[in-house]
Write a structure and sequence with these properties.
alpha/beta; FAD/NAD(P)-binding domain; seven-stranded mixed β-sheet; 15 strands; 36% helix; globular; binds flavin-adenine dinucleotide
Length: 399
């Protein structure tokens, strides 16, 4: 007979471990099912987490980030205080933006240990292949096919979530596009370790951007994400990144002695939240829910927030039969607006930045005043004013 749990969390990333910690801590019989053999390995991340004040500025309604965004010092490898957005011709717009560059492997392991310390069981090397509507989970482990049952299932299984599909979400439409990305960890990088650099351009990273994120000690994450609907057909991600490293006039001098220590390819879901994030007995968090800032690909803060909201909503569901749909209301309140704005920014960028010369002109004209708010998931004040005035006027005419 399959073992039974109150809650089965599929995926032991930041989202899953956060939910599992809360539920196990409240005494619910909780299991995390994770396909990797070592949590957090390999790293699929640029490892950038905005500092606590920046997080509270970006997500002003998410008070829980006060606690969740406070990363222990030993997990931080570097701190940066400025960000540069660099146009195809090399024009840099710079502004203050505080970040912690975290050791993502240690970070994921730290969160998973917290869940284990709270009493959560973890099955490693266990790949979930199906969830039935009654919450029977089938998975493949080292010893073969296996299964378990749970009152509530949490899909924390990342951008290609199996659990999201069992809730009725589809990934086949172009609107639900996923951004393929690669990241090199490089050593001997000669960059300013206080500055994060983001490079834009159709020939650099079509529909995305390329990053140099200093990890400290002359190490950096150098990577990029693109969107297939915009990129040149047949050009591989590696071709783009190698060309950037060798030829970009700002980046190449910083990377001329650099060596690749490791490389990973992964997916960033940049199409906004998936349409269905809850059912009667299951819900989705983190990348599985599409909770990523589409304009910059950052998803750690919303994985932590969504994971925490899910933990508390599931506890209330198991204790008092409160509906899981409460989760939708709370995440939409705490960070839904920011995710919507980030998606709007991406759509505007897609339509404006159709060529490198145009991108260059747009970025020069926009300058710090327009570009800085976009990174913070906000529309620049004039655009915000015009769009709000338009909506008000439209409503006044219609009504
Ligand atoms: C190249 C790259 C760079 C990025 N850089 C940043 C950054 O600098 N800052 C930032 O905030 N965000 C960044 N992101 C996004 C960020 O990594 C994610 O948003 C974040 O990891 C989401 O956490 P999660 O817990 O939802 O999912 P994940 O961290 O993806 O965890 C999902 C877990 O589920 C497991 N899993 C998947 N399928 C199954 C299955 N069928 N059965 C069992 N287990 C399964 C996986 O092995 C994984 O451990 C980046 C993403 C990529 C790809």
């Amino acid at each position: 007979m399959s073992p039974s749990f109150d809650v089965a969390v599929i995926g032991a990333g930041p989202a899953g471990s956060t939910t599992a910690r809360i539920l196990a801590g409240k005494g619910f019989k909780t299991v995390m099912v994770e396909r990797r053999s070592t949590i957090g390995v390999p790293i699929h991340c640029g490892e950038l987490l905005p500092t606590l004040p920046e997080l509270l500025d970006i997500f002003p309604r998410s008070k829980r980030l006060q606690h969740l965004g406070n990363v222990p010092k030993e997990l931080v490898t570097n701190k940066t205080s400025r960000t540069q957005l660099i146009s195809p011709q090399g024009h840099a717009v710079e502004f203050k933006f505080g970040t912690n560059i975290i050791d993502r492997t240690k970070f994921d392991q730290y969160l998973a240990h917290q869940a284990a310390d709270a009493g959560c069981e973890t099955y490693l090397q266990s790949t979930v292949v199906n969830r039935s509507t009654s919450n029977q989970i089938e998975f493949k482990s080292r010893s073969g096919p296996d299964s378990l049952d749970a009152k509530v299932v949490v899909g924390a299984d990342g951008p290609s979530s199996i659990i999201a599909r069992t809730l009725g979400n589809s990934y086949s439409s172009p609107e639900r596009e996923l951004s393929p990305s690669i990241n090199f960890i490089m050593k001997n990088v000669e960059c300013d370790e206080n500055v994060v650099q983001m490079f834009f351009g159709r020939n650099i990273a079509p529909g995305g951007y390329t990053w140099i994120i200093p990890k400290g000690d002359s190490m950096a994450n150098v990577g990029f994400g693109l969107r297939r609907c915009i990129s040149t057909p047949g050009t591989s991600l590696l071709t783009y990144l190698k060309h950037f490293i060798a030829k970009n006039k700002i980046a190449a001098p910083q990377l001329k002695r650099a060596k690749v220590v490791s490389r990973v390819g992964a997916i960033i879901p940049v199409a906004g939240p998936v349409p269905i994030t809850t059912s009667e007995n299951a819900l989705l968090i983190g990348d599985a829910a599409g909770h990523v800032m589409a304009s910059n690909g950052g998803g750690i803060p919303t994985a932590l927030s969504g994971g925490s909201i899910a933990g508390h909503v599931i506890a209330a569901h198991l204790e008092n039969q409160n509906p899981l749909s409460t989760y939708d209301r709370i995440w939409k309140y705490e960070f839904g607006k920011e995710l919507d704005t980030a998606l709007s920014v991406l759509r505007i960028a897609d339509s404006v930045m159709t060529s490198d010369p145009l991108t260059d002109v747009c970025m020069r004209i926009a300058g710090k005043q327009f570009l800085e708010p976009l990174i913070r998931c906000r529309l620049p004040a004039p655009v915000d004013f015009v769009s709000k005035t338009f909506v008000r006027t439209f409503n006044a005419i219609v009504n």
